[in-house]
Amino acid sequence: MNHDTVLAQLNLYAVLPNLEDLVRRDATAAAMAKSWNICIQFAVPKGPAAFVRFANGACETGAGKHPSPDVRLMFVSCRHLNAMFENKGIPIPLKGFTKLPFMAKEFSAITKRMEYFLKPTDDLLQDPDYATVNTLMTLHTAGRAVAVLSGTDAQSKAVAGAMPDGPMVMKILPDGPAITLTVTKGKITMEKGEHDRPAALLLMKNLATANRLLNQKIDPFTAIALGDVKIQGQIPMIDTVDLILDRIPHYLQP
Amino acid sequence: MTTPYTYENSRRLFEKAAGVIPCGIYGHFSPAPLVPPEHYPFFAQQASGARFTDIDGNEFIDYMCAYGPMVLGYNYEPVDRAALAQLEKGNCLSCPGPVMVELVEKLVNTVAQMDWAFFAKNGNDVTSYALMVARHATGRKKIVAIRGGYHGTAPWAQTFGHHGVTEEDAAQMVRIPWNDTAAFEAVLEQYPGQVAGFIATPYHHPVFADNELPAQGYWQKIEALCRRHGVVLIVDDIRCGFRLDLSGSHAYFGFTPDLVCFCKAIGNGYPISALMGTEAMKSAAAKVFYTGSYWFSAVPMAAAIATLDEMARINAAAAMLAYGEKLRDGLVETARRHGYNLKVSGHPSMPYLRITDDPTLMLHQQWCGECTRRGAFFTSHHNWFVSAAHTEEDLARTLEIADEAFAVIGDNPQKK
């Protein structure tokens, strides 16, 4: 797949779902979405599609097409869709013209809030509340991105194909959050939470270590030797996930 | 019961190292796959025989043998004496010393069916050279290798997707499963007249997986296919070389390669590797320009001559086999007494062990860690190495440590 196609899938399937965590974890976003009742569809014809639904103060995202979205936004190409995620492109509305003011104002505001948490600065990370949300979203984005890249990015596919099957848990100590990456014949899926019998474990000492590891600010080999990151079990799974994680910045700039 | 070791000095020095060295300790010596790393030493201070002492003063019976180079024992006097004598004469000079020719003659008279030798420093130097020779000799590009087989860290030897390796680097490599001659036949059919070489280790010794000996007739069939299709047969004997048979592992398994790569045990720790070949390969080898700054150093050559002499004198391969068998049987029985099933695969001189009660390897990692912090240096991911220096006393102490470690891991919940 070409760069634009991979990036479009990352935007829709790895980045967009952060709205769920944002509404759940950030009071500002929760207040914004409190009374929203709307479903927005994003789709590239014969390409990736995803929807975002706000209802009852919560946000739900999903891959594919929703049966009855209130707003349907079409993109002529993956590049067109990616441009919107970079605030450089405008989608083509196919349904929900009356909701366009909502899209321009409210939805735009909440995506800016998401961007605020996904693009940290050193100063922002000094705030523990900010760091908590940023790290959670970074962990989830990374897990979903690994799943996307294992099926789309040529380099990631090459290594994922040699992975042993089974669940691998990535957890921030002491009490989470955690994600489980499940490998089945080279295909990787991500679930929030931890598996009770993982084939491989990657444990990050604390939130700060997780943040630095996931943002590639520390070398994993050194962090493991120093005990900041602990690994156990099928290490080849962890090695491969590390290779795929390192592909994320090739597409998504922090 | 043994008091478990602690590693304050190792940790302190690692922190210092991490500030100035990528990964702190890089490559196959990285502590990262030593699980859990807090049970392992990071830096060694000194060694003798089959034991080394770390910078915290902890002594270990060494089952990694520097990951292979140590074969006769650390600080083995006859080898060191030969090296020092050469050092007094000269080491890295503007012409090679006579010792180079002497070593080639020694190797040619030792290794079955090989007529010449060429020296370098590391295993990867000579596997890469072997591929170039095969390509020049055949005028072809493709190289068939075994999936999971290790031949060094040159880009061609790694797979696409690993850091710094491009798709083009690995484009001419075709990977097939071990012990699968039909897969090799299929590749030869798919790429008629395009396969330059077949490279494999004498038996399959991947990391994190059981090791596999060649199936009955495997090498003979591979050899026959190579001959029929004009493919250069390359044996990577870097890890196994001289541990299975002083004549080379191809002699042990009964076949004739065109090129054989040696390193590790050849110099008992002195840096030298060798590509050996048949007369038919000699002119192709002569045409390929290949060299390195230290490839003519005389000291490692003198050490290699002494190592070969000593390995022959004491019949090192037989000694390692005997010790390896006793170690295997003792550990399996110790595990059984504690209710565990310990699987030992590969050759007894280079065993790969795995507690099969837990497929995730976590239990095995825990046991290896507990053994190590009691004085038996065991890794959980890589085959071990036995040396001719391991003694009955080492064996008895190793089994004692293994017993204690099984008691410590007890009735682990990971055991099914």
Write the layout of secondary structure elements.
The complex is a heterodimer of chains A (254) and B (416).
Chain A: H1 3-15, H2 18-25, H3 27-33, E1 38-43, E2 49-55, E3 58-63, E4 71-74, H4 78-85, E5 92-95, H5 100-118, H6 128-152, H7 154-160, E6 166-172, E7 178-184, E8 187-192, E9 200-204, H8 207-214, H9 220-225, E10 229-233, H10 235-245, H11 248-251
Parallel strand pairs in A: 1-4, 6-9
Antiparallel strand pairs in A: 1-2, 2-3, 4-5, 6-7, 7-8, 9-10
Chain B: H1 8-20, E1 44-48, E2 51-54, E3 59-62, H2 77-89, H3 98-110, E4 116-120, H4 123-138, E5 142-146, E6 173-176, H5 181-190, E7 195-200, H6 218-229, E8 232-236, H7 249-253, E9 259-262, E10 273-277, H8 279-287, H9 298-313, H10 316-337, E11 342-345, E12 352-355, H11 362-372, E13 376-377, H12 392-409
Parallel strand pairs in B: 3-13, 5-6, 5-7, 7-8, 8-9
Antiparallel strand pairs in B: 1-2, 2-3, 4-10, 9-10, 11-12
Helix pairs in contact in B: 2-9, 3-9, 4-8, 5-6, 10-12, 11-12
Please give a handful of descriptors for the protein shown.
heterodimer; A: 254 residues; alpha+beta; Nonspecific Lipid-transfer Protein, Chain A; 5-stranded mixed beta sheet; 46% helix; globular; B: 416 residues; Aspartate Aminotransferase, domain 2; 2 domains; 7-stranded mixed beta sheet; 13 strands
Describe, in plain words, how this protein is organized in 3D.
By secondary structure, chain A is α+β, with helices and mostly antiparallel strands. Chain A folds into two domains: 3-118, SCP2 sterol-binding domain (Nonspecific Lipid-transfer Protein, Chain A, 2-Layer Sandwich), CATH 3.30.1050.10; 124-251, Nonspecific Lipid-transfer Protein, Chain A (2-Layer Sandwich), CATH 3.30.1050.10. Chain A contains eleven helices and ten strands. In chain A, helix 1 crosses helix 4 (78-85) and helix 6 (128-152) crosses helix 7 (154-160). Chain A is globular, with a radius of gyration of 18 Å. Chain B is α/β, with parallel strands linked by helices and 416 residues long. Chain B folds into two domains: 8-72 and 315-409, Aspartate Aminotransferase, domain 1; 77-313, Aspartate Aminotransferase, domain 2. Chain B has twelve helices and 13 strands. In chain B, the strands form three sheets. A seven-stranded mixed sheet of chain B has the order 4-10-9-8-7-5-6, sandwiched between helices. The longest helix of chain B is centred in the last third of the chain and has 22 residues, at 316-337. Chain A binds chain B through residues 154-159, 162, 166, 197-201, 219-222, 224-227, 230-236, 243, 246, and chain B through 11, 14-15, 18, 22-26, 30-33, 35-38, 42, 147, 159-163, 167, 207-208, 359-362, 365, 381.
